[in-house]
Amino acid sequence: MTFDEMVVSRRSVRQYNDREVEKDKIEAMIHAAIWAPNAGNFQVLRFVAARDKGTLEKMKMFSPGMPRTAPCVIAICADLGEAEKRGGEFAKKIVPFDAAFAAQNMLLKAHHLGLGTCVVKSYNEKSINRILKLPGEVTVLLLVTVGYYDTVPEAPERKNLSEVLHYESWESEMRRDEQG
Ligand SMILES: Cc1cc2nc3c(=O)[nH]c(=O)nc-3n(C[C@H](O)[C@H](O)[C@H](O)COP(=O)(O)O)c2cc1C
């Protein structure tokens, strides 16, 4: 698959089959996450991979937007204590960006390995922290469901370049270079 095919064919998968996600594949995803850009290279992200059915059921109770059949959920968490130590308030504020970059690397790695994923932000933070037994200064920033799937979801529509891209300033004619 070319890079563009990889990027365009990745989908949010919300229906998984029963096949277990292997540890080496989880670790390959986390390896990709570790190499994502991160503010100041402070490296304050931590990850919890949950595959235990009881844990997953509890997480689903506090995450209405989580795909119900997910056999694995990876919580992208931040150690805010470490962030404060390394870069003060700035480092604490910027961690959601780190999580987003890490997530995208994880999603693409999973796709490359034949796994489906879905980013999930609809959850109760305190409850997820409690269920995963995160220590005091560690908090969840994003959840990523992971699993094998039988059916590829249809691609939701995307805007095209001319609807989103300006050159030089907002006021310039959009995509003037292509319109001649
Ligand atoms: C920050 C963020 C939060 C999201 N939260 C949820 C969620 O809670 N539940 C869900 O099913 N999908 C969630 N998604 C997935 C989006 O709905 C999905 O990416 C979008 O519809 C485009 O579909 P695609 O990923 O297949 O291209 C989230 C995506 C992002 C980036």
The chain-level structural class is alpha+beta
What is the highest CATH level, the class? Answer: Alpha Beta
Strands, total number: 4
**Poorly predicted parts:** none
Provide the gyration radius in Å.
18 Å
Question: Secondary structure elements and their pairing?
Answer:
Layout: H1 3-9, H2 23-34, E1 45-50, H3 53-61, E2 72-79, H4 80-112, E3 116-120, H5 125-131, E4 138-147, H6 161-164, H7 176-179
Antiparallel strand pairs: 1-2, 2-4, 3-4
Helix pairs in contact: 2-4
The structure holds flavin mononucleotide.
Flavin mononucleotide is lined by residues 11-12, 14, 65, 118-122, 156.
What does this structure look like?
There is one protein chain. With 180 residues, the chain is an alpha+beta fold. It has one domain (3-152): 3-Layer(aba) Sandwich (NADH Oxidase), CATH 3.40.109. It is built from 7 helices and 4 strands. α2 packs across α4 (80-112). The protein is globular. It starts with a helix and ends with a helix. Flavin mononucleotide binds at residues 11-12, 14, 65, 118-122, 156.
